[in-house]
Amino acid sequence: MNITDGAPLRDVARPALPMDSAPPGREPGERRFGLVTASALVVGSVIGTGVFALPSALAVFGPISLVAFVLVTIGAVALALAFRGLAARLPAAGGPYVYARDAFGEFAGFLIAWSYWITAWAGNAAIVVAWVGYVEVFWNTGHEIGWSIAIALAGLLLPALVNLSGLRSFAAFQVVATVVKFIPLVFMATIGLLFINTANFGEFNASGGSWLGAISAAGAIALFSYLGIETASVAAARVRDPRRNVGRATVLGTLACAAVYILGTVTVFGTVPHDRLIRSAAPFTDSANAIFGGQWAGATVAVAAIVSGFGALVGWTLIVAEMPRAAARDGLFPARFARQNRSGVPAFGIIVSTLLAAGLTVISYTSFEQVFIAVVLLSVLTSVVPYLLSAAAQLYWLIVDGRRSRTGHLVRDVTVSMLALAFGFWALAGSGYQAVYYGTFCLLLGVPVYVWVKARRGVYGEAPAVTR
Asked: Worst-scoring range by mean pLDDT, 26-40, 59-73, 182-196, 306-320?
């Protein structure tokens, strides 16, 4: 039985694959990238422009927010470990989509693909708006809306062109962008620690509320910073030896991001006075200027933020097409999402998603700023749904296959999966009531699409799209 015939994946036998055959979701001869590029994809997708503003958002709570950050990091690492286990079991394209379909059936898989697709293109709109802010440190400093829109559209179009040109361009750019963005961030997270003045930290709990309330509120913000740790699993069909490399890339990328986030935030807290940090729009820039004096260091950080944001857009533009591509190959998304161009990339998915992100970006700059903010929160919520079901899928298979595991390994893996599940619920709660309301509405908008796609398969006998 072929996995693309619409049957739940748990009913599919998985014989060992010959060395020259393609695993589920990949065609023989497709270009693939290795562990380094897969890890760079995770880091590049997680670290966009948000990290450069994160310390200011956490400063209102004081250093207690660092406690929340550590707790959130534990949850993110647990989720990364759950993805590693799932990728080892099923190294197929689609990540959370294929894991949910494997454990809970095709409707659950469709909802994950639909939810994640919304996350990806709406998230690209959010990233590009923040990216424009750093570009305008050097150009269009008056923030004229027309030029801001033009810069933003260029920030969406160029990553699409990088991806449409093929994986060789993507792999080279993603590795270079990750290295360039990491240099100043690693410096701030290491050497920058030597310049800390403890007097700058301020009151430990500056929120004025309880410790528990401050940790929960700060954790809700910190949770948002780890979105993207699943990207290597989503692009598993394009990774060499995915059973081994996807899990390693996910864990290594998450740990690298965690180190930069936590230590970098400590440096900023300790080099910028607390009352100034709360009002800062560019905390890493202010920290660099405080360490070196003058403005050149801050400008260097702004350049790193531009490269960082652009690298994230390149990575997410690939991911935004990979999830619907995997679902379309299984007959759960319109067939055109599965078709690839001569470079071997899903061009239709990239183009459609880029146009949707561009439309949302234009709206955000013209009329409906509050609606845009709500959509940003919506993108966070729609990413939590795949996280929850992925953790649940790992827990499900551990229970089903538990008798074949050693007791020590089973207890460890179940504990990790429970932590990952708790991480997902914490992220869900942190999204806020409005985001949950709109997120549920948008998630259920996918139901008519599912009915339409499934009806076409039933009425017209359409087979899943597996060819270019």
From this structure: 26-40
Q: Which residue has better confidence, 97 or 18?
A: 97
Residue 29 has pLDDT above 50, yes or no: no
Spatial separation of the C-alpha atoms in residues 12 and 247, rounded to whole Å: 22
- Kindly tell me if the per-residue pLDDT of 371 is higher than 60: no
323-358: pLDDT as tens digits: 888 888 888 898 889 888 877 788 999 999 999 999
Using CA atoms, how far residue 235 sits from 28, 122, 123, 153, 221, in Å, is: 15, 19, 17, 25, 27
d(C-alpha 336, C-alpha 456), whole Å: 14
Name the 3-class secondary structure at 22: coil
Map tokens 């709990």 to a residue: 205
Q: How far is CA 253 from CA 8, 74, 84, 125, 245, in A?
A: 31, 14, 12, 23, 12
Examine the pLDDT at 464 and tell me if it is beyond 70. Answer: no
Is the backbone of residue 293 left (phi > 0), alpha (psi -120 to 50) or beta? left
User: Residue 300 in contact with residue 288, Cβ under 8 Å?
Assistant: yes
Alpha helices in 272-338 (DSSP H): 274-279, 283-292, 296-329
Inter-helix orientation angle 296-329/96-104, to 10°: 30
Radius of gyration of the chain (CA): 22
Give Cβ neighbours of residue 77 (< 8 Å, ≥ 6 apart): 251, 254, 255, 258
In 233-384, the DSSP E strands lie at none
CA 103 distance to own-chain centroid = 22
Q: What are phi and psi of 239, to 5 degrees?
A: -105, 135
Burial (CB count <10 Å: 0-12, 13-18, 19+), residue 459? exposed
Q: Cβ distance 365 to 426 under 8 Å? A: no
CA torsion angle for 313, 318, 323, 328 (degrees, to 10)?
Answer: 140
Structure confidence at residue 408 as a pLDDT band (50, 70, 90): low
Could you identify the residue written with the tokens 């390693």? 248
Q: Is the pLDDT of residue 156 over 90?
A: yes
Q: Residue 33 phi/psi, 5° resolution?
A: -120, 165
Report field, pTM of the whole predicted structure over 0.85: no
411: which 2 tokens? 């207890």
CA–CA separation, 400 vs 398, rounded Å? 6
Closest by CA to 224, choosing from 57, 338, 420, is: 57
Interatomic CA distance for residues 249 and 34, integer angstroms: 9
93-104 core/surface letters (b: 16 or more CB in 10 A; e: else)? bbbbbbbbbbbb
Q: How far apart are CA 24 and CA 360, in angstroms?
A: 34
Q: What angle do CA 28, 31, 33 make, to 5 degrees?
A: 125
Percent of the chain with pLDDT over 70: 84
Contact (Cβ atoms closer than 8 angstroms) between residue 116 and residue 323 = yes
